[in-house]
Design brief:
By secondary structure, this protein is of the alpha/beta class. The chain has two domains: 85 residues, Orthogonal Bundle (Chemotaxis Receptor Methyltransferase Cher, domain 1); 187 residues, 3-Layer(aba) Sandwich (Rossmann fold). A hairpin with a 7-residue loop joins strand 4 and strand 5. It is globular, with a radius of gyration of 22 Å. Bound molecules: S-adenosylmethionine (SAM).
């Protein structure tokens, strides 16, 4: 093959593997409809990179072929799950936004302990790979006296992160996120083949259940059941009407007197709601 033809071939290859504005519009509308996630046109390169693996897996030549493929399948086809999993952003850390956990220890738990309830129930609604839910487990296992227990539900639309969270094994690169004084009671470092990894201790892991759940669904994991819900760093991806729907749905799941934490960069400003703001990004149901 001449150098000229080689260049030609390459440019044909690469142009097929570029996302056109029409493809981008289709993928953006599809993820907004399924997950409520709004991607700006400026995210074109991100979408292109994230979806590339589906072209390979399905032996498709171009993003247009992938678009046609998605159009041709039913809404229950597993390909939609793969598509959704690739377009979510799962960044999370142990002890992320620590002011929330200080508030839990200082304000919420002492009041809850003064009641006669036996199990403190929490929902981590957009739990990603589980760091948020296990941070709560570490804090609650340390803060609750004998006879008082806790249960945590972690949910996420992305089935791959739900599977990772259920596994409760993390790279030791993440160890510095966990304050040293929690290490002995809460984690076990791997040896041999598990070198470089740590796991959450089984006594903590068994109190946390992870399940797939789409916040856009009409169904909720219960009514008036949770003492605390965390819905952090997911509302930023949603349109105002989705935020309004999600906060209402969460409100119905929280016990009177229970709390909601949202991300520090998120807010309910401009929405009609029934929460009482009690601290930055912290809301209470009722007085
Ligand atoms: C940036 S992570 C935040 C994780 C954690 N809450 C934190 O603050 O560290 C956002 C998570 O929201 C999830 N997500 C996005 N849209 C969702 C939806 N419609 N329903 C449930 N989870 C969703 C994503 O899959 C992702 O794991």
């Amino acid at each position: 093959m001449s150098a000229e033809r080689f260049l030609d071939f390459n440019s044909k290859e690469s142009s097929q593997r570029l996302l056109s504005p029409e493809d981008m519009q289709f993928f953006c509308e599809a993820i907004a409809k399924r997950a409520g996630i709004w991607l700006k046109p400026s995210k074109l390169e991100l979408v292109q990179t994230r979806l590339r693996s589906r072209l390979m897996a399905l032996s498709l030549e171009s993003y247009e072929d992938y678009r046609e493929h998605l159009k041709s399948i039913s809404k229950d086809d597993p390909e939609w799950e793969a598509f959704t999993n690739l377009l979510t952003t799962n960044k999370t850390d142990f002890f992320r936004e620590p002011a929330h956990f200080d508030f839990l220890i200082r304000e919420i738990l002492p009041k809850w302990l003064a009641t006669n309830q036996s199990t403190f129930k929490v929902w981590s609604a957009a739990s990603s790979t589980g760091e948020e839910a296990f941070t709560l487990a570490m804090i609650l296992s340390r803060s609750l006296p004998p006879g008082r227990d806790f249960k945590i539900l972690g949910t996420d639309i992305d089935t791959s992160v739900v599977a990772a969270a259920s596994n409760a094994v993390y790279s030791q690169i993440k160890l510095p996120e966990i304050p040293l004084d929690y290490h002995a009671d809460c984690i076990q470092k791997g040896r041999g083949q598990a070198q470089g990894w740590f796991r959450i201790r089984p006594e903590l892991k068994e109190k946390v259940l992870f399940k797939p759940h789409n916040l856009m669904d009409r169904t909720a994991p219960g009514e008036n059941v949770f003492d605390l819900v965390l819905c952090r760093n997911v509302l930023i991806y949603f349109a105002p009407e989705t935020i309004e729907f999600v906060q209402k749905k969460i409100f119905s799941t929280v016990k009177p007197g229970g709390h909601l934490f949202i991300g520090h960069s998120e807010s309910f400003q401009g929405f009609a709601h029934h929460w009482k703001g009690v601290a930055p990004s912290i809301f209470k149901k009722g007085s």
